[in-house]
Amino acid sequence: ELPLLSVFLLLILTEIMPKESVTSLKQQNQDLKDKVDALSKEITQLKEKVRVDSAIAFGAEAAATSGNSIDNASNDETVSRSLQYLSDEYDDLSASNSGVVDQLKALSRGLNKLSAEVTRVGNAIDEVEEYSYQFNVKIIGLPEKSSETAAETSALCVKLFQEMGAEVFLSDIDIAHRVPSRQQNGAPKPVICKFVRRLAKASVMETRQSASQVNLSNIGLSADSVLDRVRIFDHLTPKKQHLFFEAKRFKEQNQYRFCWAKNSTIYLRKSEGSRPIKITDFGSLQRLVSDT
């Protein structure tokens, strides 16, 4: 559970920050993360180059020393000067490389801190988005009127919820509207219904199994409409939706019987009597694979 102050701040942010702003912030944060990763790779490559240059210089000095150790006496002074020159050059290169390595290490530490901050900001953005989504449900298969307005969609949702047995009134709904569907098969566009209080949403979720059994005429739909395909789900953030998709795929591949989402949290269960396993991130799925 989030601390009370954090919840208050998140609530304010979700009210003043439109969805487009959250999406833009996420993209900017991801762009910054990509740049940090690219810089980190460049620093690693520079470190390797410094290491190789040092090894080459050390090899050159060693070769010069061994190659001239048996020269005649007349060349002793020349050889000595040459060796001293190589030694001085090697010392200078070593000192220079040592300074470069120290600077690269400092840059790496700075980048690590920046990367951690980028991750922290990304998590904060996810929390804002997720907190906002906790007030939403997604309705699939609800018949759609021609040129349906948000007000008409909201009224239709209230009638549906009340016929299901949920204690919901129009004042409990902030807005309900249709959203584009990924599948262009002529089916009604999905509805996103945003509540002003989570108790109203909870009442809907508790009675959602009866959505397909509602009397059409009682909610103002024509007799030729079909409700048997109506389904009501938690509205998950894109990140959670992706995780949910992977969890369902994991369920099929690893003989788990149940996979579901409740209050924006994803669960897996191996069998009827086994305990639910909370899936918080992709690492949760990887750990389950390792444990099997």
From TrEMBL:
<keyword id="KW-0175">Coiled coil</keyword>
<feature type="signal peptide">
    <location>
        <begin position="1"/>
        <end position="18"/>
    </location>
</feature>
<dbReference type="InterPro" id="IPR057251">
    <property type="entry name" value="FP_C"/>
</dbReference>
<feature type="coiled-coil region">
    <location>
        <begin position="22"/>
        <end position="49"/>
    </location>
</feature>
<dbReference type="Pfam" id="PF25298">
    <property type="entry name" value="Baculo_FP_2nd"/>
</dbReference>
<keyword id="KW-0732">Signal</keyword>
<feature type="domain" description="FP protein C-terminal">
    <location>
        <begin position="237"/>
        <end position="287"/>
    </location>
</feature>
<dbReference type="InterPro" id="IPR004244">
    <property type="entry name" value="Transposase_22"/>
</dbReference>
<protein>
    <recommendedName>
        <fullName>FP protein C-terminal domain-containing protein</fullName>
    </recommendedName>
</protein>
